Amino acid sequence: MATTIRPRTPADLPGCADALKAVHALNGYPVLGVDNPIAFLQTDDVSWVAELEEEKDDGSSSRRIVGHITLTKASTADISAQLWWQLHPDDKTDIAVLGRLFVHPDGRGGGTASRLIEAAVEEARGRGQRLVMFALVPRALDAMRLYRKLGWVHYGSTVFRWGEGEEMAAECFASPFA
């Protein structure tokens, strides 16, 4: 079994949707987008997938999507960017935001999330961007531990709001090269 990280293609979206639904069933992430996962994932941003190659009993192999990440240019709609700009009003650095990071329960524990993050970080560095990401609490405790392990710095707390009056706390992290 080998996992490959590669750019996402339109043909990957159904597999990404299946993985997203499995993640949501396990821990409630994400809070939005599960009703129409393909629309949730289908953005103009750059995305990568983790594809697991599995050997079958007959000696053949099959591939399936077990992870996903997206890199976007920061906007005022991003709560992590909003907080960064509030704390650093004179900072004019081009910022990127990680999003839609998830790993299917079957693909966890082997460094898949770290490798997806690394792919996005390399792209952001190549663009000369600073990378910022937010993690939702309490559902994203594993993700927060991972970001801390990777050297990401917590720079503040804010509130994620959606729907009609729904909200939850969000913890914001900046990449080590920020």
Automatic annotation (TrEMBL):
Residues 3-175 form the N-acetyltransferase domain. It holds the Pfam family Acetyltransf_1. GO terms for molecular function: acyltransferase activity, transferring groups other than amino-acyl groups. It comes from the Eukaryota. Keywords: Acyltransferase, Transferase. InterPro entries: Acyl_CoA_acyltransferase (IPR016181), Bact_Acetyltransf (IPR050832), GNAT_dom (IPR000182). Gene3D superfamilies: 3.40.630.30. This is Uu.00g105100.m01.CDS01.
